Amino acid sequence: MTDQIPNIDLDAERSVLAGWIAEPERLADALSVCPPAGYWDPTHRRLLEALEWLSGRGKPFDQTDAARVVAQRHGNDVGGQVVAVLMELTSWPCVADIRSHAQRVRECWEARCLGLALSQAQALVRQGQAPEALQVMRAELDRERTLGCRLLTEGQVLGAGMMSVTRSRHGVFCTSGFRRIDDLTGGISEGCCWVFGAKRNFGKSAYGLRLFEENAVRGKSPLIVAFEDDEAIYGKRLLSLRTQIPLSRMRGRWVRDDDLMTLTSQVERGRSDAMILDARGRMVEDVCRDVANLIRTRGVKLVIWDYVQTAKCREKFGESERLRVRHVADQMRLCTQVARVAGVIMSQVTVMNGKQYPDADSIRDCRDISDNAEVILMGFALKEPTTIEIDGREQTFDEGHRIMFLDKNKDGPKELRIPVDWDAEM
């Protein structure tokens, strides 16, 4: 290590960048090992951030493009520093694989983060703030989860289980939007990802917005990742949900003057901590990086992926739609699991094999999605009057009544039909 500073290896950082100059196609390898945030030198870090952004566009780029992006973001002086670094690196000896250099950068980053956390914890302990010190170390362990596999002792595993039990006493992490479903499942827990599927006439989008709304009022900063619809469609449905003005009256000349006043008052009360990410046309791998950043910077606790079949991906699977959809769902699930937030993957369904109503096998294009989900909910409308047992009593529901079928539930009862009430037109 040429630079005599603990846990910093600027030669490794320079070698990563030199490796990119020599072999641009290896950039993805370096970024997969260590993100730009792990680089100590601010010029190196800003250059890597620009390269990551440029690579996400899917278009060719070169050193000039990278310097221009840095200058636009941080000013011409910083852009000039990047140009100087790039000129220096053209003659830098790159003696090993770019991935090994990135690994070295990551090791230094991990050591710096751990050392800082230990210093902060020790200072808090000296001040008699042991609980706060524990929180600092827990945050560092959570950060390490994004960097690689962790080895946990039995004591740590039991402690994690105890923390989960303790949290459940104070209510669900994120609500499903229905008390009965929360009671059966414990709500949508942190680090868990549910799958919700329904046919078009059920009101899949309406349920997604119910999730969004119910968790927004609970301060969970929900995020809808929209792969199909634009913001105007979500906006009208949210306005209908909050004002009880039917969507049918919002269309065309039927909207009234008093409706417009009511809608305007709702717009003025719009929250800044409940968000929709326009992901139309974007690759799911790039979208997941954006979502991970929003989770860190905006405190997102619930991510609603709308919906899995419409998302595109960079990986190629030939004519296999099943493999493509499974890859997309895996990316979505890992994004929320690694960040330890709640996730719901919305899916279309196709009822086959003579079944009257959908189940986990009805997920369109790829029923494999259900394999790693903690909870699977299927929505449908009754085709005839049906008697359902609820809390030991039988109740009859009319044709058309909406039902949530709890097909899978890792921590509780499953294969239950749960009647629900809400206006699916909203």
Keywords:
15 helices, 8-stranded mixed β-sheet, alpha/beta, 426 residues, two-stranded antiparallel ribbon
Written account of the structure:
- Helix content is 48%, strand content 13%.
- The chain is an alpha/beta fold.
- The strands form two sheets. Strands 3-2-4-5-1-6-9-10 form an eight-stranded mixed sheet.
- Helix 2 (27-33) packs parallel to helix 6 (98-126).
- The longest helix has 29 residues, at 98-126.
- The model is unreliable at 1-5 and 145-149 (pLDDT under 50).
**CA-based gyration radius:** 25 Å
Q: How many separate helices?
A: 15
| Beta-strand content bin | 5-15%
User: What is the straight-line distance between the termini?
Assistant: 61 Å
Q: How would a crystallographer describe the biggest sheet?
A: 8 strands, mixed
Order of helices and strands: HHHHHHHHHEHEHHHEHEHEEEEEE
Q: Which class best fits the helix and strand makeup?
A: alpha/beta
Let me know the number of strands: 10
Helix content: 40-55%
Name the overall outline: globular
Main sheet: which strands, in order across?
3-2-4-5-1-6-9-10
Name the average pLDDT: 83
Contiguous uncertain segments of 5+ residues:
1-5, 145-149
Short description:
The chain is of the alpha/beta class and 426 residues long. It has helices at 10-22, 27-33, 42-56, 63-74, 76-89, 98-126, 130-144, 154-168, 179-185, 204-216, 231-243, 247-250, 257-268, 284-298, 321-339; strands at 193-198, 223-226, 275-278, 302-306, 342-348, 375-381, 386-390, 393-397, 402-409, 416-419. Helix 15 links the parallel strand 4 and strand 5.
